[in-house]
Design a protein that fits this description.
The relative contact order is 0.12. This protein has two domains: 64 residues, no CATH class; 41 residues, no CATH class. α1 crosses α2. The radius of gyration is 17 Å and the shape is elongated. Helix content is 41%, strand content 11%. β2 and β3 form a beta hairpin. The protein is of the alpha+beta class and 107 residues long. The protein starts with a strand and ends in a 7-residue tail after the last helix.
């Protein structure tokens, strides 16, 4: 999930030529605390393996997959969820397999 702030939502809604109300209804979920997140996985703006609104993407998307953020081990499930969609995650995990000597189980 990517947290979105008001400025980011305003920026992308303007870029898309939508009112904030339209943008919010089409693309966001809001929690009781007012926290906003994209309402779909994969993101509406992911086309193939590319962001269709790249120049206007959210801060959380800019740092994705956030390997540099502390407590990465607490986000492993989310990371693995995007293995087939995100070339960065795919390449990092494939390199880890080589570096750690991972052997595919035989059946």
């Amino acid at each position: 999930m990517v947290n979105i702030d008001e400025e980011e939502a305003n920026n992308l809604s303007a870029h898309l030529g939508q009112t904030r109300a339209q943008f919010d209804e089409n693309y966001l979920d809001k929690g009781e605390s007012g926290r906003m997140v994209v309402n779909a996985i994969p993101c509406h703006f992911l086309v193939g393996n590319s962001c269709s609104v790249y120049e206007h993407r959210f801060a959380g998307c800019k740092e994705f997959p956030a390997f540099h953020v502390p407590d990465f081990n607490k986000r492993l499930f989310t990371t693995y969820m995007h293995y087939d969609r995100c070339p960065i995650i795919f390449n990092v995990l494939e390199t880890l397999k080589i570096d750690t000597g991972f052997k595919q189980p035989t059946t």
